[in-house]
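Aim 2 progress update. The chain analyzed this quarter is reproduced below.
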Amino acid sequence: MSLSEVKDRLQKLTRKVETLRRRYLALQSEKKELERAVERQNLEIEQLQKEVAQLKIDNEFLRVAHTVPRDPQVVDRYKKQVAKMVRDIDRCIKQLNA
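Predicted structure tokens:
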């Protein structure tokens, strides 16, 4: 093998290595972008899960609210029951903190 053939092979090999290096760097960059996209998607999923949970709570509240009769006496009785429950909860919290 002559010196010129060796130089030609070395140049071809150098070009292939450079091509592979550029492809590797491009793939690394793409991987980082995809990782950032996955992180954004995960944050969005987490936010949507929180929103779904809140909507379920709101839905349950509305469902219960629609079952409450419109009779003022019944509404007043429910208000008193809720107020008593709140007082009981407050009392329990005070006992736990004592």
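The chain has a mean pLDDT of 91. The chain has two domains: 1-67, 70-98. These observations will guide the mutagenesis experiments scheduled for the next reporting period.
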